[in-house]
Write a sequence for this structure.
């Protein structure tokens, strides 16, 4: 399950199944509904919707972990300390209120 965490300017941190995805931030373009994904503050891609974003971020999280010498991202990763096995818990969810007329 993908979770977009509360904003830290300029984007949002993300988790997959409750584990933080390091070095990745996302931001939604309210005008188009597209999601901008930034890796390490230097590389960026655009996802057309949340479903596409979820597919990409799972692959990005796994590639980061394996490329860093760890077994995988998340609960099954076996090495410690491991930046790809950081459990995160949100207090609430981010939802756009249908009556909210503010931009952004």
């Amino acid at each position: 399950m993908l979770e977009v965490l509360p904003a830290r300017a300029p984007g949002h941190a993300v988790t997959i199944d409750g584990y933080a995805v390091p070095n990745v931030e996302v931001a939604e373009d309210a005008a188009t509904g597209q999601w901008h994904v930034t890796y390490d503050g230097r590389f960026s891609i655009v996802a057309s919707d949340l479903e596409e974003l979820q597919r990409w971020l799972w692959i990005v999280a796994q590639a980061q972990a394996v490329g860093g010498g760890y077994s995988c991202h998340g609960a099954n990763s076996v090495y410690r300390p491991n930046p790809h096995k950081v459990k995160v818990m949100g207090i609430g969810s981010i939802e756009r209120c249908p009556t909210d007329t503010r931009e952004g």
Observations:
- The helical segments are 50-67.
- The radius of gyration is 14 Å.
- Residues 50-67 form the longest helix (18 residues).
